[in-house]
Amino acid sequence: MAADIKVPTLGESVTTATVARWLKKAGERVAADEALVELETDKVTVEVNAPTAGTLGALVAEEGAEVEVGALLGTIEEGAGAAAPAPAPSTPASSSSPAKPPPPAPGPVSRPATPPADVAAHAPMPSAAKRMEENNVTAAHVGAGSGKDGRITKGDVLAFMSRPAAAPAAAPAAARGPGAEAGREERVKMTRLRRTIASRLKEAQNTAAMLTTFNEVDMSAAMALRTEYRDAFEKKHNGTRLGFMGFFVKACVAALKEFPAVNAEIDGDEIVYKKYVHMGIAVGGANGLVVPVIRDADEMSVAQIERAIGDFGRRARDGALKLDELSGGSFSITNGGVYGSLMSTPILNPPQSAILGMHKIQERPMAIGGKVEIRPMMYLAMSYDHRIVDGKEAVSFLVRVKEGVEDPRRLLLGL
What we know:
The protein has 415 residues and is α+β, with helices and mostly antiparallel strands. 26% of the residues lie in helices and 24% in strands. It has helices at 126-134, 139-142, 154-162, 192-207, 220-236, 245-258, 302-317, 391-406, 408-413; strands at 3-6, 16-22, 29-30, 35-40, 45-49, 54-59, 66-68, 72-77, 210-218, 264-267, 270-273, 279-281, 283-285, 288-290, 293-294, 331-335, 354-358, 362-368, 371-385. Strands 9, 12, 15, 16, 17, 18 and 19 form a 7-stranded mixed β-sheet that branches. Strands 1-8-6-3 form a 4-stranded antiparallel β-sheet, with no helix packed on it. A 4-stranded antiparallel β-sheet has the order 5-4-2-7, with no helix packed on it. A hairpin with a 2-residue loop joins strand 18 and strand 19. The protein is elongated, with a radius of gyration of 28 Å.
């Protein structure tokens, strides 16, 4: 009896996904709970595991297909099952379906300008047809496919393109006419995550009255405190590293309590003021920037905040964040300084009304008490929705963050 492999529940408001890639092939043995296929949603990549042990049967949904929650992806046959289909026996050259040509011999091989007329064309799979069109490859070039009834699969096209014979010789610059650059370009379909990021960021530009205010913070005190207590902190909290993000989260929490409009959002013709702080922390993931949320950050210690941020960073790189961890934020922080950014304008993460941008710490000459001193300085930028937050509130909020980070002892004591 066959067991169905279906699209699982993907999270609140997520109803469809794209089949990113199959991790197993039809005919392969699989163990119970073994990862079979990766589904890409608007926010994260989800692995679908085998419901039972057996042999992977026919794959109903191909790579690149869009599927709904509950849709059938494939089946698992009980027992050892049949091995992958053996290749069809070779047939004479006069046969209507010639055998797949052998691998090219070592040495330079050139692809014929016009494919032989006697090479049969096999209807390609949709994903294969798209890749063939993008690379100016015909079915006659690829030959017999490895799919059912000899159909050409995406894998067949990629295998053909990887052969030395598939690389066309470079044309002289003078001979290149209009459109000749197409052969030197690569078209890659946007992932669902990238499409969602593009849509949401454009939505922020189109709907919010977005402005940005800037300031700078002297990191001397925070750096000295971190240096003094870093080793003791890591020892006490089981290896949790003491970074600067914990100071900024605490400073933002204090400022948000003083300026609640920065922690609010617009819902229709109403403003929703939130009596909690769900802090979004932007981190770089395997498929792009994601913003996991530290819930009730206003009730957490620096150690708890740093531990949560470290966990988010590790799981974002592994693509293991959960959907419910990426929604519900009330304010966000992004740190372009980890990539070397000295100054930038962060964009809102709708429906939030503000976002803080941190940047690179750089030593600069500063006038301190009538004297010039070299201090480690960081530029801060806060983008905000002017429909909710007035300029005075935005500037004052950023000043409070600056003051909190510049005097972290008072901040941590709640003064």
